[in-house]
Structures are given as structure tokens and as C-alpha cells.
Amino acid sequence: MPEPQPHQQTVAHSTGVVHEIRWSEICPWLILIKALRVTLMIRVLVLATVGVLLAQWGSAKIDRFFSLERPSLTRITDTPLAGSLVSNPVDAERLVNFVPIQENLLPSPLLRGWLWLSQPFLRLADRDLTWHSSLGLLAQGFWMIGLWAVFGGAIARIAALFLTRGETLGPLVALRDAVTVWLGTTGAPLIALLAATALAVPLALLGWLLRFETFAFISGLLWCFVLAWGLMLAFVLVLFLVGWPLMWACLGVERSDAFDGVSRCYAYVYQRPLHLVFFVLVAALLGLLGEAVVGYFAAAIVTFSEW
Predict the structure, then answer these.
(1) Under a CB-based contact definition with an 8 Å cutoff, are residues 126 and 91 in contact?
(2) What pTM was estimated for this model as a whole?
């Protein structure tokens, strides 16, 4: 039997030893920390600033054209209160319970920005609005959707390339890419709104028929079906209010169409709600941290300049 040569060695593979830890797989939410770097890019800040200025300018023009009682879009830096969205105290109280984004809960810039963009549609819950004011709010809502489909789509595209490939995209190129999928980024939330409108029309007709005593008695007997119909309407509207930013993120990454954005949004919101809530909370905390850092630097700049 031949003896082993001196230069030959036996390699022993130890089992149960961890040689590498991939934190991105263990904690997938760590990508949000990397995404925080995207928000501090000059090109992203410029796109967001231009988008905010155009949103305020268009809102003021629509306010003046429709002669609305008060501007529906306050400054994005203001802490939103339900009383500023609706004038009816009863509706304001209901909106507080439905939109839990108040000063004493979580004044994150992420959630403030979400509510700032959603203000025109949230104000439609005011039952004292006239048809003229409702048309003005719809015009503001469509203006916000069409405008941020470009600027939000451009920011989403910059973030998608940076987080997946490590590439940086210029603002003009990002805007050009956002314009190429503008029909998708605009159509995705409009599909949800059209579905909600189609479900709301029968309820509106029923509300008109309730003025007659005979139909009121019949609708009382069939009220369980009315509630089931309202459940479908709530299903669509909650999808729209919660998930419409995810539509733009999906189209910024996948470059697909509006229907794919809506289907992905359904999947994100309703199939993994706990994941969505956790990611939103982490992003909200990071937003508070980023806002605090920027605020302290801005205060320091002004203080030392005056000194």
C-alpha cells in the first residue's frame, strides 16, 4: 500500500462554521438606509424642489380659477391637521380616525409628503362641498398625479438604478425616461380612481332614491348588500390612498404598463400588509432622522452667518 507523499495534505471542511453573513438577506429593510443616500443627492433634491414649486403654482392657479374658499394644498412642511382638510366638524372627526397622521402620532416628512399629495382627494370627503368646488379639487388632484408622474417617476428611476446596479442617472435623462412611461405612471392611479367611481355611482343613485319613502323601506331590507358594495368601494379606495406611491416605484423599476403597476400595488398592500407597515415605519423614522440633520445644519448655517 503506497504511503502518502509529504507534500500531500488533507483538507478538513469544518461544518457549522459561519464564514460570511449577508445582512441584506437577513434584514432586507437595510436597503432603506441605502435609499436614504438617494434622497441626499443634489439631482434628487433639485427634481423634488422643482416638482413642489410647480405643484404649488398649479394649485394656486386652479384655486383662483375655481374660486375655492381656501387653498387645498398647504406647505409640505406644515403638519397636517384634519380640520384643514374638511370644514364639517363631523367629517373632520371621521377623517382623524381614518387618516391617523397627526402631530401627536408620527410627524414624519415621509407621511407628511404622502398626505400633502393626497389632500385634494381627501377633501372630497367633505359633504358640504359644492359641485364647483369638487371639480376644482378633482382638477388639483389630476394636476398632482400628472405632475408627479414625471418628477416622481424620475426620482424613482434614479433610485432604482442606484439601488440595483449602483449607477447614477442625470436629472435630464431621468426626466426623459419618466416621460417615456408617463402614460403608465399617470394611468395607474387613474385606473384605481375610475374603479372607485364606477362603484360609487350606484351608491349615489341609491342615495338619491332614498329621498322617497318606498325606496327607503326597500333599501333598509337590502342594507346588507349595500354594506357589501361599500366594502368593495373601501377596498379600492384604501388601495389608492395607501399604495399609489408603490405604483410609481414599480414602473420606475420594471418599466411596464399601468395595469401591471395596479396589480403590483394590490399585491404589496393586501398580500404582505405587515411587511408594508414595517417598511413604512422604518422609512418614516429615517425621514425624521434626515429632517433633523438637515434642520440642524440649516440652523447652524444661519447662526454662524449672522455671527
Answers:
(1) yes
(2) 0.70
